[in-house]
Write a structure and sequence with these properties.
The chain is an alpha/beta fold. It contains 17 helices and nine strands. A hairpin with a 3-residue loop joins strand 2 and strand 3.
Length: 376
């Protein structure tokens, strides 16, 4: 399937590019013509572009060496280290984009909130935010607080050349859910209760996280990111009616905050197969699909003109090459139902993944001999 057109919602015009700094890689670094950005705009490049969520992380021995003795949030806010970690999987695997090394609670840390990432537990707040009075104390973040993010992005894109950097932020619901729960949760009962018991307080909290996410994404774009992804880890816990009433307006606000730059915006969530149309309506140029829903069905639900991202099952990375290869070829085939397809996992790279498997998978996706030679 070949398509020479582009998605009008994500088309980069001269007016868009004029809002970016003169040295931005979309203007002068060649990323606008890269396979990744072309696919995000609805084109079909000569080879399938691929990147992996959590490709910069624990599966790489060089990452573990670089992070030794450094806490997660400290690493995210140390520009030289964040840049190095972001670049590692591009060097090793030959993926078509880097994903900025960060975490969904980095903006909370930048805002001065009491938050940490505890090994084995994930993000933990010093105290939850559950009342209107507590939410009213949330600060407006000074612009200079994002300077470490800008510097890390700048250092990264200097070395990426024509390979695009994808910026990253946690979606308003997921970040707010952590703040209400005070940490990770299986069922997200506290934020779901708050939505209905005190909708004004919920909207105030979600509005703050939306504005914070928008500013976080803008800082990355202005410093050199060529695309962004809004990641909603927990939206799949909601029925569509609650998503549309209590979440979608805030996700839309975060995405709208960077619409004027014209960079492609990816919207991804886990367990969100029933929410995909609403996630697209929130302002996505590209919709990420997790491993639970086949891409041809996602294209049917969203319409064939929507670029899709996904959705190799991360569990199959350790299931043996023959199983993984067959599954990956099936994903590529079903991705043909969409106007364009960015290959990714249906969630993040598991920590125990053999890096050599990812490198081999990239070669397969790029059209290596194994794509047409199952016996190799």
């Amino acid at each position: 399937m070949t398509n020479s057109g582009s998605s009008p919602r994500a088309l980069l015009t001269d007016d868009h590019l004029a809002l970016l700094p003169e040295g931005h890689p979309l203007r002068s670094g060649g990323t606008a013509d890269s396979p990744m950005i072309r696919a995000m705009r609805g084109d079909r490049p000569e080879t399938h572009p691929v990147w992996f969520m959590r490709q910069a992380g624990r599966s790489l021995p060089e990452y573990r060496e670089a992070r030794e003795g450094t806490r997660m949030l400290e690493a995210c806010l140390t520009p030289e280290l964040a840049a190095e970690i972001t670049l590692q999987p591009v060097r090793r695997h030959g993926v078509d984009a880097a994903i900025f090394f960060s975490d969904i609670v980095v903006p909370l840390k930048v805002a001065g909130l009491d938050v940490d990432i505890v090994p084995g537990k994930g993000p933990v707040m010093g105290a939850p935010y559950r009342t209107a009075e507590q939410i009213a104390t949330l600060p407006e973040i000074p612009d200079a607080a994002f300077d470490p993010i800008r510097e890390a992005v700048r250092l990264t894109v200097e070395q990426l050349g024509s390979t695009p950097l994808i910026g990253f932020a946690g979606a308003p619901f997921t970040v707010a859910a952590y703040m209400v729960e005070g940490g990770a949760s299986r069922d997200h009962l506290a934020p779901r209760i708050m939505m209905h018991r005190d909708p004004q307080a919920w909207d105030a909290l979600a509005d703050w996280t939306a504005r914070t996410a928008g500013r976080f994404l803008a800082a990355q774009i202005e410093a050199g990111a060529s695309a962004v992804q809004l990641f909603d880890s927990w939206a799949g816990s909601l029925p569509e009616r609650d998503y549309r009433r209590y979440v979608m307006p805030h996700s839309a606000r975060a995405l709208a905050a960077v619409e004027h730059y014209g960079v492609p915006r990816v919207h991804f969530g886990t367990g969100t197969g029933e929410l995909l149309p609403a996630m697209k309506e929130a302002g996505a140029d590209v919709v990420g699909v997790d491993y639970r829903l086949d891409l041809d069905e996602a294209a049917r639900r969203l319409g064939p003109d929507t670029p899709l991202q996904g959705n190799i099952d991360p569990a199959l990375l350790d299931a043996g090459w023959d199983v993984l290869r067959e599954h990956a070829v099936d994903v590529l085939s079903k991705g043909e139902a969409a106007v364009s397809h960015i290959v990714n996992l249906g969630h993040g790279v598991p920590a125990g993944t053999d890096p050599a498997v990812l490198t081999r998978l990239v070669d397969l996706i790029h059209g290596g001999r194994e794509l047409n030679d199952p016996g190799r």
